[in-house]
Amino acid sequence: MTKLDAILPAGGRVDEVLARAAGTEIKALIPFDGVTILGRTISALRDTGVVGKIAVIGGEELRTSDSAQGADLLIPEGSSGPDNIQRGLEALTEGGKPERVLVVTTDLPLITPEIISRFISACPPDKDICVPLVAKRDYDGAFPGSTATFVTLRDGTWTTGCAYVMSVAALERSRPYIERVFENRKSKLGMAKLLGPAFLLKFLTKTLTIPDVERKIESLLKCSGAAVPNSPPELAYDIDFVDDYEYAIEHLTPK
C-alpha cells in the first residue's frame, strides 16, 4: 500500500469550562495520562506503517510544544479550517505532489493505529473524498452514556467521523466549494440553501439514504465522494465539552 501523507489541523480552541479542567484552551494540547491528543495522534499515525509525512498546522503555543515534535512539518495556522488544510497541503506538495492525503482532526483521544489503518483500507480508491460513517449502535456500544449528534437515514442512524482520505487534485479543485460549506456550517438558513429543498424534504421525511448523501457531496464539492459505513466509533469521539473530556478520562483509565 502506498503511504499517505497526513494533515493535522490543530488550531481548535475550547470554551472556558473545558480549558480550566484540561489546563489548556487548545484542543490538540489536552492531555490524557500525560500525553496530549496531538502526541497520541502523531504516534498512532506513525505506528500504522501506512502514513508518510505528517504536517501539523496550528498556533505558536502548539508549534513550540513537545507534542508537535514528532511531526515532519509545523505550519502556522490560517484563518479557517479549510485554509489550514490548504496550508498543510501546500507544504506537503513542495517536494512532489502525492495523489491522496489523510486529514485527521486533533480532538480524537481514543484513536489507535489499528483504527486508522482500518478506515484507510476501507476507503474506495476511485473516490475523491472518503468520509467515515459511524453507526449509532456501534457508537453506543463503545461509549454508552456519552453524547453525539446522529442523523437518521432510511438505511440507518449515523454520525460522521473526523478523519478523511482525499484526492489532492480534487481538494485543490474543490477549495472554493469547501470554503462555502465551511462558512455556512453554523447557519441553518445557509445550509438549507446549500442542500436544497429536495434533499431537505428527504431528510425531514427520513427517506434519505447514504447514496443520496454521496450524491449531495458530489454536487456541493464538485468531486466524487464516498461515505464509508460502519467505520470505527473512535473516529467520532471528539472532545468539545468538559463532559466529553471527563468521559474520555474514565474510558482510558484501566479498570
List keywords for this structure.
two-stranded antiparallel ribbon; alpha/beta; 11 helices; 9-stranded mixed β-sheet; 255 residues; Spore Coat Polysaccharide Biosynthesis Protein SpsA, Chain A
Plain-language structure description:
The strands form two sheets. Strands 1, 4, 5, 6, 7, 8, 9, 10 and 11 form a nine-stranded mixed sheet that branches. The chain contains eleven helices and eleven strands. The chain has 255 residues and is of the alpha/beta class. Helix content is 42%, strand content 20%. It has a single domain (4-252), classed as Alpha-Beta Complex (Spore Coat Polysaccharide Biosynthesis Protein SpsA, Chain A). A hairpin with a 2-residue loop joins strand 8 and strand 9 (156-160). The protein has helices at residues 16-22, 37-48, 60-63, 81-92, 113-122, 136-142, 168-183, 188-195, 197-204, 210-221, 242-252; strands spanning 4-9, 31-32, 35-36, 51-58, 73-76, 100-104, 129-135, 151-153, 156-160, 163-167, 225-228.
Short description:
The protein has 255 residues and is α/β, with parallel strands linked by helices. The chain contains eleven helices and eleven strands.
Topology:
Elements: E1 4-9, H1 16-22, E2 31-32, E3 35-36, H2 37-48, E4 51-58, H3 60-63, E5 73-76, H4 81-92, E6 100-104, H5 113-122, E7 129-135, H6 136-142, E8 151-153, E9 156-160, E10 163-167, H7 168-183, H8 188-195, H9 197-204, H10 210-221, E11 225-228, H11 242-252
Parallel strand pairs: 1-4, 1-6, 4-5, 7-11
Antiparallel strand pairs: 2-3, 6-10, 7-9, 7-10, 8-9
